[in-house]
Design goal:
globular, 5-stranded mixed sheet, alpha/beta, homodimer
């Protein structure tokens, strides 16, 4: 029975690898963090951690960009990342060859979305957008019951937003590619650039600062509602967890939509746009993905 | 054999109903337009047209907002449209009860997307965004081989864009809901408001006008690429067909992305963002949807 078999979970992030074992019902048994250094050193440590655990399958949520379509010749490789040592590293292959068990592989944000859909506040829904706002902004999306991949995977953290005239961040934002994208204006680096090194959490008591961030988030929420028609939007990440921007953005988003979208979901916006499972959705989503790989 | 059976196709638009018969291979046999007036009068004429054609199934692409999820209690009804006489009219039910054959039902833009995927330039792809720019802006989306519905259906014509400082349209755009949405700034009513009643086609020789429209379109294309990760974007509708904005927007979109998305598709942007099947994708998509309903 798949539910009784031990499953491995790997959240492969740019700064740390979270390794865990657990079960298909989302229960985590053991959990350990390994620093992300060079690909070889890091993956060797990851493989060693999992080697004698007796796991029957592994679910991997990887930092992007990465190839998540099993039909792609690049499947399981990290793509054009600014972390040059990791470019074109075969993350999935290097792990699967060593552990020799079925592995599921997707982006960290798609896996977090799966975690919310399987165990969290989006249980049983077919169309869900998961957004994380931390050192970067990423979106995982479930559409018609399937995680969205497309030609690569969504990179919706980089959608353009309109600059608030009050914004003092300067010409360049926190994103090296785009001066006016969501990530550049609300993720960690942009926030620190704007407020002299202070984090969003440190600015949480400043109403004007929160109003500024919430306005950018509201623009993005409107775009996600119009593009994905999700049944629920779940928001995680440090910037969202340590500030009041989610409730502020909800209100602003409803004002911007201006009555255009009339659905039971949007009409109940406080349960439509919600905060996430306190950081556990990623590792629990990896367990769900690992359990799927067993089938 | 499904392919030999005659199939009905109905593009149910806000100003006209295009009724056709044809085959699952996309061949159109007969085609006639009926003006859209009151729901009762219009649907009676539509039903009368199809009544003695001997069609085995019907595919309907309807104007929105409309309920396209078969599990919804509102399935097949028009929703909160500005055309008040049509609000909550049971379009699908009124037709299916009379004709008594299997019917497929989706939005006009999703059906046009299906037409491009089945017969047009997006054949065989699994992730495609179809955008029409005419009297309004609408988007139909295929994700992982399925047309996107979600809580209702995408309404991506209304995503916000950043105003070009050169724009003389004034405070209010052509959209009664949003002063800065794509539809309000590039669809027919906004274009006419800005340029003293002139259409986009009449402005097609004015480079600054075309540059303005293309800049808005490019912002939207960037959003669609980042949100949907489509394998191809197909653009139809009068504004796109009668102006050079698609080629202009392609260039601008590549500049805005600024090398962030590196895929074979985006690298070949001239075949990635393309004009559509000259207005036939809607009715051919209805045939494809009707053929699916037979299965």
């Amino acid at each position: 029975m798949a539910e009784q078999q031990l499953i491995g979970a790997l959240e492969a992030g740019g700064t740390k690898m979270v390794c865990a074992t657990g079960y298909a019902d989302g229960m985590v048994l053991e959990c350990e963090q390994i620093a992300t250094t060079t690909p070889q050193e890091t993956v060797e440590a990851v493989n060693a951690w999992f080697a004698n655990k007796g796991i029957a399958a592994l679910g991997i949520g990887a930092f992007g960009p990465t190839a998540v379509n099993p039909a792609s010749p690049q499947y399981g490789k990290i793509l054009e990342t600014p972390k040059t040592a990791w470019r074109y590293f075969d993350l999935l292959g290097t792990i699967q060859n060593e552990l020799d068990i079925p592995c599921g592989y997707d982006t960290d944000v798609n896996v977090a979305c799966l975690g919310e859909v399987t165990f969290g506040c989006a249980q049983g829904l077919t169309d869900v957008a998961y957004l994380t706002i931390g050192t970067g902004v990423g979106a995982g999306v479930l559409s018609g019951g399937q995680l969205v991949h497309g030609m690569m995977h969504p990179e919706a953290g980089h959608i353009l937003v309109t600059r608030d005239p009050r914004d003092t961040i300067g010409e360049h934002s926190g994103c090296p590619f785009h001066d006016n994208c969501l990530e550049g204006l609300i993720a960690g680096p942009g926030v620190k650039k704007r407020w002299g090194g202070k984090s969003a959490g440190e600015m949480a008591d400043d109403p004007e600062a929160m109003d500024l961030l919430a306005g950018y988030l509201a623009q993005a929420l409107m775009t996600f509602i119009l593009c994905y028609a999700p049944q629920k939007i779940v928001i995680g990440g440090g910037v969202a967890d340590h500030t009041p921007i989610v409730p502020l953005a909800r209100k602003k988003c409803a004002e911007m939509l201006n009555g255009y979208i009339v659905t039971p979901e949007v009409n109940d916006i406080d349960t439509y746009i919600v905060n996430s499972l306190e950081g556990k959705q990623g590792i629990m989503g990896c367990l769900a993905l690992g359990a799927q790989a067993l089938q």
